[in-house]
Amino acid sequence: KTQIVEADDYFHNIEVGKYLYSAALLPQAYQECFDAPAQFLFQGDSVVVSNVFDTEEEVLRYETLARLKNVKLVSLIVERRHENPDVHGIGDEAIAKMAIGFPIKL
Questions:
Q1: 95, exposed or middle or buried, with CB in 10 Å at 0-12, 13-18, 19+?
Q2: Over the stretch 31-76, which tens digit does the pLDDT of each residue have?
Q3: Average pLDDT over the chain, rounded to an integer
Q4: Which of 39, 54, 57, 80 is deepest in the core (most CB within 10 A)?
Q5: Which residues make beta-bridge pairs with 46?
Q6: List of residues 6+ apart from 98 with CB closer than 8 A
């Protein structure tokens, strides 16, 4: 069985049927997004994590988890090649700051 998790899942409010993003809750969202794959791997499931990782350290957490669970980690970099608006409302300045810290230049 394959499980898909992403930090954005934390902001989907099923009760009201809306996506309610809050930058203040990002630490909890990212922690839950890390904890869930660990549990799924323990159950023997495969896991896809769909997240924005803007530092090497964020990816290393998942690499360490994969080694501990003796599973293969595949990392994909996806470029934004569209002009759709940012659904999180973080703005161009924040995106530019994330790009500065990203170790791989595309």
A1: middle
A2: 999 999 999 999 999 999 998 887 888 889 999 999 999 999 998 8
A3: 86
A4: 54
A5: 2
A6: 52, 54
Tokens linked to 98: 């994330």
The residues, any chain, with a CB within 8 Å of residue 37's CB and separated by 6 or more, are: 3, 5, 47, 49, 62, 65
How far is residue 95 from each of residues 26, 39, 47, 84, 92, measured CA to CA in Å? 15, 31, 27, 14, 5
Q: Is 71 helix (H, G, I), strand (E, B) or coil?
A: coil
Please list, in sequence order, all residues whose beta carbon lies within 8 angstroms of the beta carbon of residue 58, skipping any fewer than 6 positions away: 30, 51
Nearest-10 crossing angle of helices 26-42, 56-69: 20
Tell me the C-alpha distance between 74 and 4, whole Å.
Answer: 14
What is the token pair recorded at 56?
Answer: 């090497």
**CA pair distance 94, 46, nearest whole angstrom:** 32
